[in-house]
Amino acid sequence: MAKSEERRYEKHFIPLESDPEIFNQLIYHLGAPRSLAFRDVLSLDEPDLMPHPAIALILILPTTESYEATKAIEYAAQEEYQGKGEDEDVMWFKQTIQNACGLYGILHALCNGEARSRIKPGTPLARIVETCTPLAPHERSLELENSDEVEEAYNKVALLGSTQPPEDPEDEIYYHYLCFVRSHVNGRLYELDGDCKGPIDRGSAPAAGDDMLGVSGLDIIRACLNRDRGNPNFSLMALVLQ
């Protein structure tokens, strides 16, 4: 969660460790098919260390002062998002659960792009998409916040990591999760961050044959890292088809 934000939260989650195995356990509890899995991206420059085909990316960043300052300038002119409905380019969730950045990143990856078409009917994920599609962002956030299914699935995996959770659940964790995904409607690349005012269109569709770890996707990741002057303390996961 960004430390520049001053919000009051009604619900607080244990932070989710940025481990692909933990992420995978959560998505399967939510009803994602086994044909989807998160994998670590170990390099931005060596193709052999990039998992393919990548259909979404989740970038985990420390929320340093330089990152927050650059982001604030970039997003200052952004208008509050009001999109909803079947014609919405991407499904975006405003974050209203403290320290649940990982969950929001996962939902942004699964509810958009290629993954969206693979959601199995009758699962918690399917119900999230069906229920939230017609809702305005504020109502959508409340629907997610009040979902017992989502909270139950999250709690099954939240304590599996090796990192000690904070003693006080209201303590801020100064790492943040950003999702990058191709729209299932117009094919363009979007940055989805529940701490922002809405989804951010990051450019035209990737070239034919490229996935999210092609030239377009990697350029977006590098540009995002430059907000923090190349801070090496980041990690990247890809949602891949397997």
UniProtKB/TrEMBL annotation:
PANTHER family the record matches: UBIQUITIN CARBOXYL-TERMINAL HYDROLASE
Gene Ontology molecular-function annotations: cysteine-type deubiquitinase activity
UniProt KW Hydrolase keyword: yes
Organism name: Cephalotrichum gorgonifer
Domain UCH catalytic: 12-241
Membrane spanning stretches: none
Coiled coil start-end: none
EC number: 3.4.19.12
Catalytic reaction annotation: Thiol-dependent hydrolysis of ester, thioester, amide, peptide and isopeptide bonds formed by the C-terminal Gly of ubiquitin (a 76-residue protein attached to proteins as an intracellular targeting signal)
UniProt-listed Pfam families: Peptidase_C12
Catalytic EC class: hydrolase
Family per similarity comment: Belongs to the peptidase C12 family.
Keyword list, A-Z: Hydrolase, Protease, Thiol protease, Ubl conjugation pathway
Name the record gives this protein: Ubiquitin carboxyl-terminal hydrolase
Listed SUPFAM superfamilies: Cysteine proteinases
